[in-house]
Amino acid sequence: MSRHFEFALPDWLAGAEPDPQERYETPEDRMGLAVRLARQNVEHTLGGPFGAAVFDPAGRPVSVGVNLVLAEQCAVLHAEVVALVLAQRRLGRFDLSDGGREACSLASSTEPCMMCQGAVLWSGVRELLCGARDEDARAVGFEEGIKPGDWAARFRERGVEVTRDVLRRQAADVLREYVDRGGVIYNAH
Ligand SMILES: [Zn+2]
User: Fold this and answer.
1) Rounded distance from Cα 24 to ligand 1 centre (Å)
2) pLDDT at residue 69, as a whole number
3) Of 77, 136, 86, 133, whose CA–CA distance to 106 is shortest?
4) What are the φ/ψ torsions at residue 83 (nearest 5 degrees)?
5) From ligand 1's centre to the CA of 133, what distance in Å?
């Protein structure tokens, strides 16, 4: 049995990483990066059409993630999980809020699935930006699991501000592009 737990971002990402000093000021700036990563994941590897990025309170990127389910044959490696894990590694703490002192944000090219919603709440990010909606994912064959209809309101109750429909059309276009190229659809069963 293996005692190691490791995965790697794809090689193409080495040339596509954002400048860690650049400030992504607006929700659209931040989502633009997540959507670009999603599109590149499709174009380079026909990987799952999802991208995500974590930003520090000043809007500087802390980490990026793309869907690695197919590349690493691991069901939990959704883009949000990858970005959150790498942010926690980089900052050296499991609580990205650092006890409530730091308001990091996560941009996700598609609204988080049931698993990623848990990962977001446990991560300590204080802001969640969503691109494509759950129904955009379902329209191309993905499904997001069991989620309460009022999940965004429940996130806000727990101190996570949620902004939806940021660059929604561009994010949904990536989902359709993936399917048009013959990408594999996988779901929770
Ligand atoms: Zn997910």
Assistant:
1) 23
2) 95
3) 86
4) -65, -40
5) 13
Can you tell me the distance from the alpha carbon of 83 to that of 69, in angstroms, rounded to the nearest whole number?
Answer: 14
Q: How far is the CA of 44 from the centre of ligand 1 (A)?
A: 21
Pull the structure tokens for residue 96: 């990205």
Distance 173 CA to ligand 1 centre (A): 18
Q: Which pair of structure tokens corresponds to residue 17?
A: 């990483």
Q: How many CB atoms lie within 10 A of CB 99?
A: 8
Q: Which pLDDT score, from 0 to 100, does residue 63 have?
A: 98
Residues within 5 A (CB) of ion ligand 1: 78, 113, 115-116
Count of other CB atoms within 10 angstroms of residue 168: 19
Which residues of the chain register pLDDT less than 50? none
CA proximity to 146, closest of 113, 189, 186: 113
